Amino acid sequence: MTAKLTHFDELNLSRLNLISAMDQAEVAEWDVTFESQGRIVRVQCEALPQYAVPHGLDSDVTAALINLYIELGETEDGRFSVSATTLLRLCGWHNTGKYHATLRHCLERLHTSSYSVSGGRRDYPKGRWTHAKFHFIESLEFSSGDLMGTFDERTIISGRLADAIVASIRSGYVKPLDSEFMLSLSRPRTRALYRILDGARFDPERPDVQLDLLEVNLIAWADQCKIPSTIPGNIRRAPASPHEELVKRGHLRSVGLTGRGKDQMLRYEFVREFTAMDAVLSRRFRTYGVADGVARKLVREHGRSFLIESMDRFDTLVRNAVLVVRKTKAAALMHLIAHPDEYPYPSQSAVPGVATAQTPAIQTPATRSGGARMEPLLEMPGWLRNSGASPPSNQRKRLSTA
């Protein structure tokens, strides 16, 4: 089974957020009450003391299980069965003994922690707000090679998702989730916050409506993220690093803070044209050092096929020493994408030895028809320090190949 490029999140879970956006947790319960569209909503969690409340990496596991259930055909009884190695891959984790142990710990915590939602769960088909009590994983069993229940390469995990979660998914109360982007984020709490923010953008009564701006009270946001503090300074510091990464990676345009004390308000401005990246493009752009935010902008402006063709052309020119990168690969690739006519494929006569069984000569329409061959840009001038910028025509510089 292979993971799909387009994943989903159950909208009740992403809106209410049952996972603490903290890397570590010590508390065994939390109780949050808030107002939403004129309704009072109460969400509670009780966990076993040895596990603490679900947090951090548990967000990766819940997202993986939701999409696994969808890929398995959304069975009516909510049951799933998967190998430990496959589930690790869906979580975006390495297949090592350390992560086998972590996976088991997360599954145990999601199975034993109990949730109670009062007036906050949306029954999408009936258009009503309901109450629910459940464990994320209602039943859990797995195979193991020893009495300690250690996960290994042969472990098979079986279980059943909560009826409330199953009902929402089967009724279509889901939203898109860019799992490729989420799992590329550096820390568990950043991935959890991304998922919370992504869910907060959707109107619970009209899930087809997506917000570009979100303003929320700082203390209320701590409750939403399950940050165990009521001190404004502590709350501000907890998501500071995730905020920085989400802005840098192009998901958030800005994060602002206004007011004083407990009246402080967080203001999130989302990048409206945020574009989901497929796995191939995302991984390939990273090899050149192109930031995700820049890559998404390129996809919107040029399209996937043109970008892949441009990267192939770039690789060919560099491999055959027609293009010598003087600065960075990212800057050179950006210039090629912006000015493709200045970078024709090398012809047989221009690059001796290119036409081999392994690397056949590739020509542009101009060279095939006998048109003049343009000289490639071999050296990156100073203006390319700002990737994507176009130089004035009188500043473009080519080196003669004669």
TrEMBL record:
Annotated region (Disordered), positions in chain: 360-402
Pfam families found in the cross-reference section: RPA
InterPro entries: Replication_initiator_prot_A
Descriptive protein name: Replication initiator protein A
